[in-house]
Design goal:
The chain is of the alpha/beta class. It contains 13 helices and 24 strands.
């Protein structure tokens, strides 16, 4: 069985490895860098910057309370950039080692379909190669969506790719889009002294999250000096003598901001162009590749996974889809339970969610119960000096099955795995209550939040 995977990101390389494990002859084609956006200019380098930003903020604001004497310290931006490159390089090297150990043939170049059984690969060194296949898995990922704003092509207007590698920390930054990526960069740069402004067209930042949980982040960002303007649209960007002028409009009227840099962060779009998909009749919805639940396209031996489908654009979802696609090809039927998909925002406080929000559950007709536990009542959070947060369960009032878990606070992005497993097992809130949680941990708050559904949280006063 000859399988070609187009794209070496977290969807593609995982699919390639799983295919090799199941006995396929695998070729992986990657046009730029192994590890894709996530490893090189996305998840990993962003979290390197966020980790330093968190430590820097803690030392700035809490060192004396923590019993640490610090005379003078600052951000060494060039050293941080070097560390980011080292971490990325080590992880990319690890993926390359995995591909080699699984005897996967790697071609660095750009693939396009000649017909339904052959690809042409334009190698980076210029040579063209024809590759035959039995099955193809398209895993070409996504790229930043660029709003057609007048002035959006001016120097100093950047995407998340450039925001990771600026030559120096900007004095001021306006972020267009208060979603996950925009909020994370706002957290990074505001922590390092940049005056940050977020402009968001929707009523709330991180609008995909439960509003009650997302509000904890909004409060924290404002406390760190970030100005947040919601229900606000950008009309144009202009060059001025001092930098860039961003003109916005709201229901209350127009407002302008003068800043050094502007970050366009309004989402991402599938990468599906220049592949010859139309030539072989692959069905598209706009620029999204249409698939069934097993990630088959309408051309049955060609599959698509990850961001190029334009559905849930998360690295861990792409990886899961890659495994299911390969196992289907190799005759091992499997499926994904998308309701267990965790969402994570690596700000301070961290946000994490799985399952339905309270509003979504009500819209679907559930009789909803909720249980909430604030982290100011959690011992480990107090020890860490991170009490700005909450645990919130959304529960079916009739069966007490857990429908969703939403968190703001320290380690939320790690702890959400308990909620994902609870949804996968269709657990009831009683099953969380009767599970012993270690003390002292932030994870105890999950136990207390479960008790709170019955108004019986131990560590909250009546």
């Amino acid at each position: 069985m000859k399988i070609v995977v187009i794209g070496g990101g977290p969807g593609g390389y995982v699919a390639a490895i799983r295919a090799a494990q199941l006995g396929a002859e695998v070729t992986l084609v990657e046009k730029k860098y192994i590890g894709g956006t996530c490893l090189n200019v996305g998840c990993i380098p962003t979290k390197v910057l966020l980790h330093t930003a968190e430590l820097f903020t803690t030392l700035q604001k809490e060192s004396e309370d923590l019993g640490i004497k610090v005379e003078k310290f600052d951000i060494d931006w060039q050293r941080l950039q070097s560390r980011k490159k080292t971490v990325v390089s080590q992880l990319v090297g690890g993926v390359n080692t995995l591909l080699q150990s699984n005897k996967i043939k790697v071609m660095m170049g750009e693939a396009s379909f000649l017909n339904r059984n052959q690809l042409e690969v334009q190698l980076l060194e210029g040579k063209k190669i024809t590759v035959d296949f039995d099955h193809v898995i398209i895993a070409t990922g996504s790229k930043p969506f660029i709003l057609p704003i007048p002035g959006g092509d001016l120097g100093g207007v950047i995407t998340s790719d450039e925001a990771l590698s600026l030559e120096e920390i900007p004095k001021s930054l306006l972020v267009i889009g208060g979603g996950v990526i925009g909020s994370e960069f706002a957290s990074v740069y505001s922590s390092m002294g940049t005056k940050v402004t977020i402009v968001e067209a929707l009523p709330n930042i991180v609008a995909t999250m439960d509003k009650e949980v997302a509000d904890y982040l909004a409060v924290a960002l404002k406390a760190s000096g970030v100005d947040i303007y919601t229900n606000t649209k950008v009309e144009a960007i202009e060059r001025t003598q001092r930098g860039l002028k961003v003109n916005t409009v709201t229901k209350e009227g127009n407002k302008s901001f003068e800043v050094e840099k502007v970050l366009l962060s309004v989402g991402r779009k599938p990468v599906t162009e220049n592949m010859g998909l139309e030539k072989i009749g692959i069905k598209l919805n706009g620029d999204k590749i249409v698939t069934n639940k097993r990630f088959q396209t309408n051309v049955s031996h060609i599959y698509a996974i990850g961001d190029c489908r334009g559905e849930v654009m998360l690295a861990h979802v792409a990886s899961a889809e890659g495994v299911v696609a390969v196992e289907g090809i190799m005759g091992k039927a499997s499926k994904i339970d998308f309701k267990t998909t965790p969402y994570a925002v690596y700000t301070k406080p961290e946000l994490a969610a799985v399952g339905m929000t309270e509003e979504q559950a009500k819209e679907q007709g559930y009789e909803v119960k909720t249980g909430k536990f604030p982290l100011y009542a959690n011992g480990k959070s107090l020890i860490m000096g991170e009490t700005n947060g909450i645990v919130k369960y959304v529960v079916d009032g009739k069966t007490e099955e857990i429908l969703g878990l939403h968190m703001a606070g320290p380690r939320a992005t790690e702890l959400i795995a308990e909620g994902a497993l609870a949804l996968r097992l269709e657990a009831t809130i009683e099953e969380i209550i009767t599970t012993i949680h270690a003390h002292p941990t932030v994870g105890e708050s999950l136990h207390e939040g479960a008790h709170a559904v019955h108004h019986s949280a131990i560590h909250l006063p009546k």
